[in-house]
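Sat 14:20. Reprocessing the chain from the morning session after the first attempt stalled halfway. Input below, unchanged.
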Amino acid sequence: MANAMAHPYRSHTCGALRASDVGGTVRLSGWVHRKRDHGGVLFVDLRDHYGMTQIVADADSPALAVLESARVESVVTIDGSVKARDAATVNANLSTGEIEVYARGAAVIGAAAELPMPVAGEQEYPEDIRLRYRFLDLRRETLHANIVTRTKVIRDMRRRMEDAGFTEYSTPILTASSPEGARDFLVPSRIHAGKFYALPQAPQQYKQLLMVAGFDRYFQIAPCFRDEDPRADRLPGEFYQLDLEMSFVTQEEVWETMEPVIGGVFEAFAEGRAVTPSGSFPRIPYAEAMLKYGSDKPDLRNPIEIREVSAEFVGSGFGLFEKIVGSGGTVRLIPAPNTADKSRKFFDDMNDWARSEGHAGLGYVTRKGGEFGGPIAKNHGADKMAALFDRLGLGPDDGAFFAAGKEEQAAKLAGLARTRVGEQLGLIDKDRFELCWIVDFPFYEWDEENRRVEFSHNPFSMPQGGMEALTSQDPLTIKAYQYDLVCNGYEIASGSIRNQSPETMVKAFELVGLSQADVEERFGGLYRAFQYGAPPHGGMAAGVDRIVMLICGAQNLREITLFPMNQRAEDLLMGAPSLPEPKQLRELHLRVVEPAKS
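Finished this time. Tokens:
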């Protein structure tokens, strides 16, 4: 112990001491977490990265005056002796809960000013204060633990990828613009006046070039940059993904390779929560997902399945639904199981909610002991409604909601209603991670605003059927070798088998209005590489931030990110974005044009 005490700041961390250390002399350093004055005896919770130790100082201790005057969150060094706590005061919630340190000396080595926000406790606090003083926010227990979990998750990912035969390679940060579906962050070139680099939205082209270069199995914990609006599951600016690519593989081999990796990460950090076993992730075609769940990101913890019931209302005499179906629309039914005890208000509130979401409304029927209620049942007829419920396997105490309209609108409303009904009825098991693959995405979609065909997902994907499909099929019927991995209603990964044929690549882009010259100009590196022997290859990218958010049970990505921006894409701590100096603008051959005042 004498040698340990020679260290100027600590012989142990604040999470290290145990009953076996009783009688020893120690030196600890950390932050004053809490203070409790018990009439001449001061108790101080001393905190560092590793844990908490209770410090005791009384009138006989020279440390008392120092600790009494030290503000909370000051950094102090304590010299003292380890004592056993009385049995009645043992704190089973602390790793150091069997001991306390009697302070024989104390020194403040980092005084704290009056705090703009509390550190002890987990109370809500305004986001702008939390982000401006993020260094204080990061001291709070839950956020601090989440960041530590994040580092452990990334370390676990790396180990699993290396064990699966992948090698980590770093791709450039300054690159050319790429069509990933969001705005680029542009970086002006000082040397090449008027030209700009782009920060990568993803390493898509580089990882494909690595396959052409013969590296076979690549991965990277890749920083990606997109200038897009923030939301709860997507931060503005910067995010990280587990990026990977494999040569000579089918999409089934990608799935079989990555299920143990992603599933294994969830299992490693599940802490008792159930995880879909590796090797058994459901593979759900996109069209089926949109029909049964109203979403390509289904939460499979929710047992409710949407049903297509349009045919039921053809010539049914129920005017509204008959008119919708007759004009090419659709009717979707969302079961509301065991709602006989729910009041009319429950159903009316769901209808009001649907209107608040911008929809015309959400029809419903109630059922109690086999008796139907509500205007739809009255208009459609009890016998027809009973036959429908029997065909769908719904019970005598099950209600139902109806979403009707154009197929896309009805599917969206039905999906949102499915989620809300599941939440309102407590049907979603929060202690599970349910993973699935969504497969067979459409290769193209119709852009109503511009009246043209556009890529629906990744333009570098291989269309199912290859060149023959591109030349002989209606583009909107072509499916792609594209797939998403979904967990609990969140897309956590996206990937595809790539189109490595230059002729097929050109044809795919021609169908969205780009010529061969456009392809060569925009994707010259990739296009040229495909002329020189490109292997079949595919891969995916998994969102590190979303995976950590799910594992930590956080509701927002800011709760698992070290220094996030706010909703206005501002870094309140560092003051970014900021105005450049005139000298910097001159060097970059730029000038700022102020936006027009409204």
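The chain has a mean pLDDT of 94.
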